[in-house]
Write a structure and sequence with these properties.
This protein has about 500 residues and is of the alpha/beta class. The chain has two domains: about 45-100, no CATH class; about 105-415, TIM Barrel. It has helices at about 5-25, 45-60, 70-75, 90-100, 150-160, 180-195, 210-220, 225, 245-260, 280-300, 325-340, 360-375, 395-415, 425-430, 440-450, 465-470, 475-490, 495-505; strands at about 80, 90, 105-110, 115-120, 125, 135, 145, 165-170, 200, 230-235, 240, 245, 260-265, 305-310, 315, 320, 345-350, 380, 385-390, 395. The strands form six sheets. Strands 5-18-17-14-13-10-9-8 form an eight-stranded parallel sheet. Strand 15 and strand 16 form a beta hairpin. Helix 2 (about 45-60) crosses helix 10, helix 5 packs parallel to helix 6 and helix 11 packs parallel to helix 12. The longest helix has 22 residues, at about 280-300. The chain is globular, with a radius of gyration of 25 Å.
Length: about 500
């Protein structure tokens, strides 16, 4: 072998080693989940008060339609009234009394305590949501119906993603037609393939007890789940505009009986089920989410509920839902402000890209909305990972790329710490009187570990090295990453003896 070829091989080997070292995780995470938000305030204090007052007026004068009889009875005991149109009206004093006694924070438990975190206050966490009926196929790169196997794979994948704080089932297993078996097997996947906090939905109130029995079995016995709840229920109790939904109400009562935290989601559509004006939209959707808060608290004062006001946008030219864009980003950021104004755990939605492919449109839409919602101080930012095609699709590659994006968002929220040591006067003295650069300074090495995020999938190679490495784009790199993770990460978090009993009692399909 020629000396030139040996030098070339040594050069490539050295470069590969350097790249591997750069890709290694830092000893200290420079961008951990849970930084404080609130830096972005799309609404002024005066505007918040105007929207708040209008929302209370809507509840007092317009009221809620189709209220279940059980709710009417309990609410009227607390001061609600029935107007001439038969609508359930909540006086301002009643609503403000409910707000005063509502849950202000709670611990959302992971089955592994290292994943637990407190919901409330100023801390921001990004996680998943969605009910995609299609999955972007890893092989064909086109969408196909989502399956139970997809849900299992998504769960295994998210179990490895450090910047995704919890996993709510992101897709609907269209190959499970029976609604109870769908709810049950969805819950089973969440238990078997991750120990992060999780979220799911219940089609009917009757499905809650058997599924919480499953949670109890996994947790170690009757009543164990309620001691440290690791799953929340996604409920949409409001049908916009200003009506209650009977099935979701029954699910909420069943969840309260079994200690399942509630994520009460209101997802009104601007110009369709809510006013098209942004302030009118916020007033209406905030009123409806307050109605959900009243519904829960008249039965269980102080019950853990996430105040999830998700104002959605439609393209007024076509009527299509718009998951990405400036309007939906500012609306959900403002929704976080409103929830934080009354001091309840807040939830909003971001990153619901309209893009179908893993491309520049996807990155633009996801980063814009995730950053806006994080900076606004939402406690829980849903849909922030994996969702595509205006919530109709979910993508494995998007999950791993979003995980990296969220590291950058957390880093931005963390901001800049200022102190005597880090202001670097002494380091400046050492450099200007010595070597003339900072590369060898101890402070530089410490900052490298503490303050900087380094991409795992993002490309920072110079063009020649990128070309030699195959000139792959983000989609290709993410596809390879997903395949590697799914090939190697195969957890079985349910004890085998418990799993055998569950399979003997329930129709587990995976």
């Amino acid at each position: 072998m020629s000396e030139k070829r040996r030098r070339g091989r040594r050069g490539r080997s050295s470069r590969d080693a350097m790249i591997a070292k750069r890709r290694a995780a830092p000893a200290t995470n420079p961008a951990p989940p849970g930084p404080a938000g609130g830096q972005y305030r799309p609404l002024t204090d005066k505007q918040i008060e105007q929207i708040y007052a209008t929302s209370l007026r809507m509840l007092a004068e317009l009221g809620m339609g189709e209220a279940p009889a059980q709710l009417v009875e309990r609410a009227c005991e607390r001061g609600a009234e029935i107007n001439d149109l038969g609508r359930l009206c909540y006086p301002r004093a009643m609503v403000e009394d409910i707000i005063a006694g509502a849950c202000k924070s709670f611990v959302f438990h992971g089955r592994d305590p290292k994943h637990s975190f407190e919901v409330g206050g100023e801390r921001v966490y990004f996680g998943t949501g969605g009910a995609a009926v299609q999955t972007l196929d890893l092989d064909t790169h086109v969408y196909r119906p989502s399956t139970l196997a997809d849900l299992a794979d998504f769960t295994r994948l998210v179990d490895t993603l450090p910047n995704v704080a919890w996993f709510t089932r992101c897709c609907v297993a269209t190959d499970v037609p029976d609604v109870f078996e769908l709810d049950l097997n969805t819950a089973y996947c969440l238990m078997q393939y991750t120990q992060k906090p999780v979220g799911t939905s219940f089609t009917l109130g009757a499905h809650v007890d058997p599924i919480v029995d499953l949670f109890d079995a996994v947790a170690g016995g009757t009543g164990k789940f309620a001691e440290a709840p690791f799953c929340k229920a996604h409920i949409s109790p409001i049908i916009s505009p200003l009506r209650y939904g009977e099935d979701a109400f029954e699910v909420a009562l069943a969840c309260i009986r079994r200690g399942v935290p509630i994520n009460a989601i209101v997802a009104a559509m601007s110009g369709a089920t809510a006013p098209a004006t942004l302030d009118g939209m916020l007033a209406a959707s905030f009123a409806e989410t307050l109605a959900a808060l009243v519904m829960v608290n008249v039965f269980a004062p102080g019950y853990p509920m996430i105040f999830s006001n998700w104002p959605f946008v439609i393209d007024l030219r076509t009527g299509a839902f718009c998951g990405g864009g400036g309007e939906i980003s500012v609306l959900n950021a403002a929704a976080a402000q409103l929830a934080n104004h009354i001091g309840v755990p807040s939830g909003v939605a971001s990153s619901m890209a309209d893009a179908k492919a893993v491309d520049a449109q996807m990155g633009m839409e996801k980063a814009l909305s995730a950053l806006a919602c994080g900076l606004a101080g939402a406690n829980m930012v849903y849909e922030s990972s994996g969702m595509m095609a205006s919530l109709l699709g979910a993508s494995f590659e998007a999950f791993v790329l979003d995980n990296e994006m969220l590291a950058y968002v957390y880093r931005i929220l963390r901001g800049v710490e200022v102190g005597e040591d880090t202001l670097a006067f002494d380091a400046m003295r050492n450099v200007v009187t010595g070597a003339g650069h900072f590369i060898g300074e101890p402070q530089t090495m410490a900052a490298m570990e503490r303050d900087y995020c380094y991409p795992h999938l993002g490309d920072r190679l110079e063009p020649t090295a990128w070309a030699e490495a195959g000139a792959r784009d983000a989609w290709q790199r993410a596809n390879a990453e997903v395949r590697e993770v799914l090939a190697g990460h195969r957890p079985q978090y349910i004890d085998p003896a418990v799993d055998a009993k569950l399979r003997g009692h329930f129709n587990i399909l995976i």
